[in-house]
Design brief:
285 residues; mainly alpha; elongated; 15 helices
Length: 285
């Protein structure tokens, strides 16, 4: 625990929270939260910070301090177990969940753990379990963009192929850059669910021309292929996009996977695309 106490100090010094930008009550709450998290009482610390945020504080440094408290690991052992889960969740999501689930209790609702657990559950289409993890993330950092994104992804998962499902409430142009591409993907999926192919193509074009710059993102090419493949009889499948998707997935590095962690289905459909390409080749289309 000495390592943990030292790291807590480093975190708060490095953030250089400007207490002069806070009210006296805000400063006192921040100090109390620091004291609680140093004892391993994260949820109690976050409750205090949430009260200060709701009271009207908008200081960026305060928000950063809140996120740091939500994400910090209480022990080296937990950090190492999380790192292992993070390294395997795309290929072994069930095993990753087995590693992450006990950490949610021992780490007192660590935000990093709940986010990764939600993504792992979404990867295996366990919408109910993913929702439970998102609710834990909302408990400790409800204002986080990635937490908001995960809630939308859970709704998309629950909607499945139900064309009558309520539409997702999306404003990708208003989202921070780190989640904009993922939100634009949801817009494409929502349009396809309703079989509105014109809207799906428009959403793809908007994604392509957005700040997210998705040309190196395998999922952009997958959904471009997918949109062509479900557009109906007489529509040629976009084989160029299919091959681009497979190529980018095969070249994906650990750093690339981490940069695209907000896409739970990252490169999950390579077998389907490969099969389609082989069928097209045999048919000569």
């Amino acid at each position: 625990m000495k390592w943990f106490a030292s790291f807590i100090l480093v975190v708060f010094v490095s953030l250089s929270v400007r207490t002069d930008a806070l009210s006296p009550a805000g400063t006192a709450r921040l100090e109390k939260a620091r004291e609680l998290v140093s004892k391993g009482e994260r949820v109690a610390a976050v409750k205090i910070l949430k009260e200060e945020k709701l009271s009207g504080d908008t200081a960026v440094d305060f928000t950063q301090a809140w996120q740091a408290i939500a994400e910090i690991f209480l022990t080296d052992k937990a950090q190492n177990q999380f790192s292992l889960a993070e390294s395997i969740w795309l290929v072994k999501p069930k095993e990753a969940l087995d590693l992450l689930t006990p950490l949610l209790k021992s780490e007192d609702a660590n935000l990093q753990v709940s986010r990764l657990a939600a993504r792992s559950a979404l990867r295996i289409l366990d919408c109910v379990r993913a929702d439970s993890f998102v609710k834990q993330a909302e408990l400790v950092f409800p204002i986080g963009p990635e937490v908001r994104l995960l809630a939308l992804q859970v709704q998309d998962c629950s909607n499945g192929v139900n064309a009558q499902a309520p539409p997702l409430r999306l404003s990708p142009e208003n989202e921070p850059l780190e989640i904009e591409g993922s939100v634009r993907l949801l817009a494409v999926k929502d349009a396809l669910r309703k079989k509105d192919f014109k809207a799906a193509r428009a959403a793809l074009t908007a994604w392509e021309n957005s700040r997210a710059k998705p040309t190196d993102n395998p999922e952009f090419w997958y959904w471009r292929w997918r949109t062509s493949s479900v557009a109906g009889p007489g529509e040629a499948h976009d084989r160029i996009s299919a091959r681009k998707y497979l190529s980018l997935c095969s070249e994906l590095t650990p750093r690339g996977r981490k940069n695209l962690a907000t896409y739970p289905d990252l490169c999950a459909n390579t077998e389907t695309v490969e099969s389609d390409l082989k069928s097209s080749d045999k048919a000569g289309t």
